[in-house]
Task: structure prediction
Amino acid sequence: MSRELLRTTFGEVAELYDRVRPTYPPEMYDDLARLLGNPRPRVLEIGPGTGQATAPMVARGWSVTAVELSPDLARVAQAKRAVLGRGAGLLSAVHR
Result:
């Protein structure tokens, strides 16, 4: 299977992927904040998918900018952004 084809795999079933993908344990975000030495860091998230990690980071007050190549995954994450408020910026870039 080609790399280009693999890049679209999750986007084809974005809503299903969002529903069945396991979340990360809350302690992971505590550990990250501790490692960064900042309880409210600025984060650049590459490939956030549907925002499974983005949402908990924003809920903690982190400033998150996410770049997602799949327009379908970005659409699901954008819907979450509307609920999360201004703390998350989601940029969608589509590879030609």
